[in-house]
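Changelog-adjacent note: as of this version, every example in the card shows the full chain rather than a window. The one below runs 227 residues end to end.
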Amino acid sequence: MSIEGIIFDNDGVLVDSEVIHVAVERELLAEHGLEYSDEAYMSRFVGLSMPDYFAALDADFRAAHERPLPANFADELRARAWPRIQSELQPMPGAADFLTAFDGPRAVASSAPLVRVKIKLSVTNLSQFFGAHVYSSEQVANGKPAPDLFLLAARELAIDPRFCLVIEDSVHGVVAARAAGMAVIGFTGGGHADAALADRLRAAGATTVADSHDEIARLWQSGFDLT
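Full-length structure tokens:
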């Protein structure tokens, strides 16, 4: 299969933000009486749009406490997480080098709110590689694991989805990309990745798995088969 363009997830793929978000989220959830195993949390929640994430948490909170998730939970979470993002966020090692080497069409397709995606790319000096091709689940009817967001990115890049490669670190994202008819490299190089992430990504449909952008670059240069 000839790949014409690459679509990147952002959190945990281009920027090492998931490790911050997950730590803050689980700390706050524990304070509210919701605790999860590493695998359960990463499988269920990472990669979801914010509305879907909060809806899932609300269902769990109602089951555990027979009342809705506190109305100020999202504001409290944002107040804790965002200062750390602004002060600690780093680009994923090797991301800028790979983006410099790859001269084809590329886009970002993230479940996060568009304004935050753009800020993270700016803070890490990665905005220059994508121009206007930065997309959010806010712009489609259904977020990941539905294919809508990846199909939007492919349409805006003017590339047939069959010739798009997706780089994703979440089960929901891999499922979405495969539903869009795209090849997927499951990415396990983020600080949040646990030992079982590669297996979960393969089980979700990842074509192959890479633990760094250097490995993605080697795969790309080798012209490996993505069918």
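Structural remarks: The CA atoms of residues 63 and 114 lie 31 Å apart.
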